[in-house]
Every structure is written in structure tokens, then in C-alpha cells.
Specification:
This protein is α/β, with parallel strands linked by helices. The protein folds into 2 domains: 2-148 and 282-297, Rossmann fold (3-Layer(aba) Sandwich); 165-278, Rossmann fold (3-Layer(aba) Sandwich). The protein has helices spanning 2-7, 21-30, 46-56, 62-65, 94-97, 104-119, 128-138, 195-202, 217-224, 238-241, 253-265, 267-278, 283-297; strands at 14-19, 37-42, 70-72, 85-90, 122-125, 143-144, 165-168, 185-188, 205-208, 229-232, 246-248. The two termini are 20 Å apart.
Length: 298
């Protein structure tokens, strides 16, 4: 998101976070190469500090950063501010739709984010599906700012060996990876950012059987890497898939197996369509959508 704002011409972008030592290192790594100012404060028990700051509603953020035009909240940091536009992003409403799939702490934190959205000056969603969902469930109409595809996801570059059909994700009910058992799919639950493009390129087919998503970024990343995609026909994935994927019933393993065979047969067509579709999702476009939303709320 931050690199998109810079590419779109935003001035004086500042990344601010109170974080643990490990969290601060991860933030610095994620911001590597992005020309922005950083205010990452390393704190012991940083989660407790963030929780206390959110609960006490003081000090105001301006006491630390000075005046600003926009404060775009993260999922978990809802600190007070005196002035400027207050913005936030909702990625999905999965904990509302499927509370039984979420840990109690996750439900609590997301619930607070959803309440915060009702007080924000401008709310963003990462897809039109999620924007409609938020409007129906929370009574707030978000602006849509689609996520961008990182430049590392291209067909060119090294490919992982020993991968045929690939799936990415954690084994949780929403991701529905258990439906792939017995289909010869290699399921990877954690992989580094550098290794992921190699896995996509090495796969003959990428499978994404999710039951519910806010957008479905792995679908677009695989397409950008030149890999045919088989994905769930749930409406939450319509925008990520476009007309460039084989859509299947995520609850039907036989349908998924047939979808994999179809993707192999249509490889040339699906690769071309997928590359074209993935080009629509750039971080610059994300940044431009965010700036339009900020200005509308100013």
C-alpha cells in the first residue's frame, strides 16, 4: 500500500508503528526500498502498549508525529488523533460470517476494527464484493482500493523443481485445503516472499479452493507468474479470477480434479488470459484509489 501511495504521487508518507524488536525488524524488511519516512518505535510488550493506548484514548497521535493530513489505521492500532482524515481498510468480514472459524481474540480484534470503521472519515475495501458486504453488514459504504501485484511475480525467473499442482495456505476451515487430500496436490502453508514466485512458476496448475475471501490475492499472483489457476466458484473470488481461471465447487473434490485436468488442457489460453488479467492490479492504482478516497473525505 505504501509503495502505491508513493508511486501515485503522495507527499511525505510516514510509516508509524509501536512494535516489538521482532516486529520492528519485519516492518523494516517490508519497507525496504520504499522511499518513506519511518517512525517505528521498539517497545517491550508492544501488544500491551497498543491495547492500552487504544483503550485510554491518549495521548493524541499528533503529540508524537506532529500535525498530519491523513492517518490510515492498521487492523490493530486504533489510537486517537486531534485532526486530519481518519481512514481504515477492511479486508474481509469472515469473523462475522463464520465466527466458529475464528479464535476468540481474532473475533474481538476484528470486531473492534469493524466498530472503528463506523467512526472513520473514509473506509476502504479490497474488492467490490467486500465493499458490498461491509455496506450490508456495517451500514458503511467503502471506497474500493484493489491490492496490487508485486513486481516479483512474473513468468520470468527461476522455478522450483518437484512441483506439479500447487496450493498455498494454512489448514483452517476457510481455506478448505483438506478437500485436496488425495488429489496429488502439494500444499504449502508457509513460504518466504522470495520463494513463493519460484513455486508458482514451477507449478503446472495452482489450486485455490477457499470458501470465502476478501479478494483472493494468491489467485492473481499465480496468474502473474504464468501459472493456470483453478479456484473456488464462491462470489468473493469473482474479481480475482475474472474470466482467466477454471472455477469449481470448492466442496467437491471430483469437480476440483476435473478442473485441474481442464486447466492442463487449456494451459496456453489460461496463461495468456491470466497475465492480461493480473496486469490490472498495480500498486500505483491502489495508491491512486486511496488518494481519491482521502480527498473525498477532507
Amino acid at each position: 500500500m505504501l509503495n502505491g501511495l508513493v508511486e501515485a504521487g503522495a507527499d511525505d508518507v510516514v510509516a508509524f508503528a509501536p512494535a516489538s524488536e521482532r516486529g520492528a525488524r519485519r516492518i523494516d524488511e517490508s519497507l525496504d526500498g520504499i522511499p518513506i519516512e519511518r517512525h517505528v518505535r521498539t517497545l517491550p510488550v508492544s501488544y500491551a502498549w497498543r491495547e492500552a493506548w487504544t483503550a485510554l484514548k491518549r495521548p493524541r497521535l499528533e503529540r508524537i508525529l506532529g500535525d498530519f493530513d491523513v492517518f490510515h489505521l492498521s487492523d490493530w492500532l486504533h489510537v486517537p488523533q486531534r485532526g486530519g482524515v481518519r481512514a481504515t481498510t477492511i479486508y474481509d468480514l469472515a469473523p462475522l460470517h463464520f465466527p466458529e472459524w475464528s479464535h476468540r481474540r481474532t473475533r474481538r480484534l476484528h470486531g473492534r476494527s469493524y466498530r472503528e470503521a463506523k467512526r472513520a472519515d473514509v473506509v476502504f475495501a479490497i474488492s467490490e464484493f467486500t465493499a458490498r458486504d461491509v455496506e450490508q453488514r456495517l451500514g458503511v459504504r467503502p471506497c474500493v482500493a484493489y491490492p496490487g501485484v508485486d513486481e516479483r511475480y512474473t513468468p520470468d525467473g527461476p522455478s522450483a523443481e518437484g512441483v506439479d499442482v500447487l496450493a498455498i495456505g494454512t489448514r483452517e476451515p476457510r481455506k478448505n485445503l483438506e478437500v485436496l487430500d488425495g488429489l496429488g496436490v502439494r500444499v504449502v502453508d508457509y513460504v518466504t516472499d522470495d520463494e513463493l514466485p519460484r513455486l508458482y512458476r514451477g507449478a503446472s496448475v495452482f489450486v485455490f479452493p477457499s470458501r470465502f475471501e476478501g479478494f483472493g490475492m494468491p489467485v492473481v499472483e499465480a496468474m502473474a507468474s504464468g501459472t493456470p489457476v483453478v479456484c473456488s466458484n464462491h462470489p468473493s473470488l469473482d474479481e480475482a479470477a475474472g474470466d482467466a481461471a477454471v472455477r469449481v465447487d470448492p466442496e467437491n473434490s471430483s469437480a476440483i480434479a476435473r478442473g485441474i485436468d481442464e486447466a492442463r488442457e487449456r494451459r496456453e489460453e489460461l496463461v495468456a488470459k491470466g497475465l492480461e488479467h493480473a496486469r490490472k492490479f498495480t500498486w500505483r492504482s491502489t495508491g491512486e484509489a486511496l488518494l481519491r478516497g482521502y480527498r473525498s473525505a477532507a
